[in-house]
Amino acid sequence: MLGTLNGALEVRGVSLPSEAMQVSVDGINEVRDGIPVLTLIAIRYALRIPKGSREVVDRALARHQDKCPTASTLKGAVEVSWTAEIEEV
Question: Residue 46 belongs to what domain range?
């Protein structure tokens, strides 16, 4: 989803260097019928964005999961969630 978010930002004229975009991901497995099954992927973004771009970034964040090929593939099978900590610099 990071690539999709980055692309959505660039299309909107917000280009962030790699050091301005941090991401961490946790996966949660549950055992079902003795088999570990991935049930949740939780993504946490930490973004350092240019002052005055918050509205554009918020719009990109709101839509990026729906446009992500991987998230779309997993839809219905694995819950994908995200949060974002945003700092304007």
Answer: 2-88
Quick one: pLDDT at residue 34?
97
User: What is the distance between the alpha carbons of residues 83 and 58, in angstroms, rounded to a whole number?
Assistant: 11
Q: What are 55's two structure tokens?
A: 């509205």
Q: For residues 39-66, b (16+ Cβ closer than 10 Å) or e, as one string?
A: eebebebebebeeebeebbeebbeebbe
For residue 82, the domain's CATH number is 3.30.300.20
Average pLDDT score over residue span 50-67: 95
